[in-house]
Design goal:
The structure is a homodimer of 421-residue chains.
Chain A lengths: L2 H7 L3 H10 L3 H10 L2 E2 L13 E2 L5 E6 L8 H13 L4 E4 L6 H11 L4 E3 L1 H12 L7 H13 L4 E4 L5 H8 L10 H13 L4 H4 L1 H11 L2 E4 L14 H19 L4 E5 L8 H11 L5 E4 L11 H14 L4 E3 L12 H21 L5 H11 L3 H7 L3 H10 L16 H8 L2
Parallel strand pairs in A: 3-4, 3-10, 4-5, 5-6, 6-7, 7-8, 8-9, 9-10
Antiparallel strand pairs in A: 1-2
Helix pairs in contact in A: 1-3, 2-3, 4-5, 4-15, 6-7, 7-11, 8-12, 14-15, 16-17, 17-18
Chain lengths: 421, 421
């Protein structure tokens, strides 16, 4: 029986464990899981660390890793996963498209303890491309890809079920600048248009749900038609796909299958709240997993920052799960260092939203007290990245050990302690 | 006659020039300047590049540079100013507290074309400290410091006029964790408490305003009691000081003196909008100059990111002017590289707020079109930091020149161009 079905009968060990971490009454969490408003991705083959994503919980973050055809070093990708988890990634997605993809996935599942996600359509498309063209992908390629990943222990999978004849035709008649920028979305849209056939993940959605039921992985309903620039944001094709996804969430829930809903992408600051509200109404509170969002197009090299701005605001308004963005986004496959920078930025965004909603505020108070006491050891230990903070402090040693080289003897905190209190 | 008084009579050359840059009708801008809702800092001795700050204009950013007792290399500080202006700083503040402060200020005025700000109380306090204690500062030290900076051509000055007996006593009776963290605020609060005298910049505010009138520099009314941590944010002492500042804004306007109002500091995401709204009502639309704000205390080493999150949201809600934060904040005096990172992050925040309010959206559209066309040369040229973007792209060269090493042959944009349109 799936976790969701078990949750409908009573508190499960998974719910008990997550409730403790989140400091939420287990019965309240049970109701949220049973209703599909909180998802705990958990494939028994992998049996990952437990992680709750959704309403009322601390915001979670995901880090993407994975090879490409141009660069496929399995050891480096595993190192990226390790570094990502070290700096706070709650889940890892393996988006490999180069080298030995099966082996990569299996090693990640074996070596990484957090929940692992994948996008099985990549592999199906690449397999077809090798034989000739992605347009030759068969329905069997698609579904057997999903089953293979399920058997390998993948905890959640992105499937672009909302890319349909109707939503793709909406893209064609739109005035979008960037058409489609999701890899999975492009594969499926091209396939649908070229063959004039419906997306099998949509027309045979029940089969997909049965598979998810059997292996008990979570479905992450992918936004294959998410806009690729600020000008295209929150447009008709995006919303058309979301409405379709809303219907699919309900059908999965009826079968006890957990669903997450993926969202944009590129969103200007003034449209972020609307994006969250609409997802929460249309998908009846399903956890919202946003990709960034990045809030301007002009900052390649700094998209970890544009993503942190968008992610913080989205999470503050109710997004539950942030996909990180690295400084390499739009430019190249990230390095290990890029992954670290992306994770830290995303973790900051999640935390910022948490404390604005009254969750996990103790850390900030402890830092404030350490600062007031000029207790540098404690300050460094509380910091999101103690090594970097230490480096910055030591780089320019102040004469007095208790202050820093910014103000030196005219340290406001020191003077205030002497004269104000 | 001051710029503000001239604006009340008709369109001045300064207003004409700023109106053109901002693409705003000159008459509308004239009314805003005359009312004090837009400030154009402009000391004739310096005669800087014209820069409008306030209602309806693109958001502006400031970069702080300056020596400290522990580290005072004049050449390095000048290099910081140059780099800051290169990456988009609209103004520079020289906050030097070490080495030859007078010479530093004069060289900055001479070599930097954007408006220059200072905080004269620093120098007055250091002068007194050298003789014994900052508590020995005389009223004459304070005012003659301001006059010296005015004569040197400083375009705007931070003066902490709202740190008064009443507002400081409000700090003492508060349950703040971090008491006072503003350097100028601490100097004055200590002085007031120790001597049981009123802040001369408050009790003799008319004299300060007359000086500003004579030399026509803008007053930046400093928030000496701004909270120093998330827990203290938007508290009574902060608001008490703001109410005092609101009254002072009106008195300056009556004399034709331009005023900017400084704001926090440390503000959680859920209090940013309130901070902007309150400043705009209490100070009758005076330009709001926020320091960051940073939105969590736990990220030293990454406060350019926490500041960009807070700054973007503050500016979206109406803050007009963002003081950058560098990664070195809370840790050490920044290096040239830190200054660059701080400026870029702050510039991104300002731009993100601009496009969310419909200003300067063309750049993003041009980037989106370049991405759709896979025109890498154009993408790099539009980027906020073309050198960094180029470095990232070249680091991992893709086999095909038109894509990038992230997706390689499975580039969504390339496939969509082939099959979707």
């Amino acid at each position: 029986m799936t976790l969701m079905r078990r949750a409908r009968k009573g508190i499960t060990p998974e719910i008990e464990a997550v409730a403790e971490v989140e400091r939420m009454p287990a019965e309240r969490l049970r109701r949220l899981v049973a209703a599909g408003r909180v998802v705990i991705p958990f494939n028994q083959v992998h049996s990952p660390d437990l992680c709750g994503i959704g309403e009322g919980l601390a915001v979670k973050i995901n880090a993407n890793i994975g090879t490409s055809a141009d660069h496929h070093d399995m050891k480096e990708e595993l190192e990226k996963a390790t570094v990502a988890v070290k700096y706070g990634a709650d889940t890892i997605m393996d988006l490999s498209t180069g080298g030995d993809i099966d082996e990569m996935r299996r090693r990640i599942v074996k070596e990484v303890r957090v929940p692992i996600g994948t996008v099985p359509i990549y592999q199906a498309a690449l397999k077809a491309a090798k034989k000739g063209s992605i347009l030759d992908m068969t329905e069997d390629d698609m579904f057997s890809g999903v089953e293979l990943h399920a058997k390998d222990g993948i905890d959640f999978m992105t499937v672009h079920c909302g890319v349909t004849k109707a939503s793709v035709s909406s893209v064609k008649s739109s005035s979008r600048i960037t058409d489609i920028v999701s890899r999975g979305g492009t594969f499926l849209a091209s396939w649908i248009l070229h063959r004039d056939e419906e997306n099998p993940f949509y027309s045979n959605y029940d089969y997909l749900v049965e598979m998810a039921q059997e292996y008990d992985f979570a479905l992450s309903l992918g936004d294959g038609l998410r806009p690729g620039c600020i000008s295209d944001a929150t447009d008709t094709p995006q919303l058309q796909e979301l409405l379709i996804i809303g219907g699919l969430v309900k059908r999965a829930r009826e079968k006890g299958v957990q669903t997450i809903v993926e969202g944009p992408g590129h969103v200007p600051l003034n449209q972020i709240e609307a994006n969250v509200r609409v997802e929460k109404t249309v998908c009846e509170g399903a956890p919202f997993y946003v990709l960034g969002p990045i809030v301007t197009d002009i900052a390649p090299g700094y998209d970890h920052i544009t993503g942190a701005i968008g992610g913080a605001l989205a999470a503050f308004h109710g997004a539950d799960y942030l996909c990180y963005v690295t400084p390499a986004e739009h430019l190249s496959l990230p390095t290990v260092e890029d992954v670290k920078e992306g994770v830290v930025a995303s973790k900051i965004a999640a935390h910022v939203a948490d404390i604005a909603r009254g969750i996990n505020v103790e850390q900030d108070d402890r830092m404030a007290r350490a600062r007031k006491a000029l207790d540098w050891e404690k300050m460094l230990s509380i910091a999101v990245d103690p090594e970097k903070a230490k480096l910055y402090r030591q780089r320019r040693k102040p004469k007095d050990d208790d202050v820093c080289s910014m103000c030196g003897e005219v340290c406001a905190i020191k003077i205030a302690s002497d004269y104000v209190r």
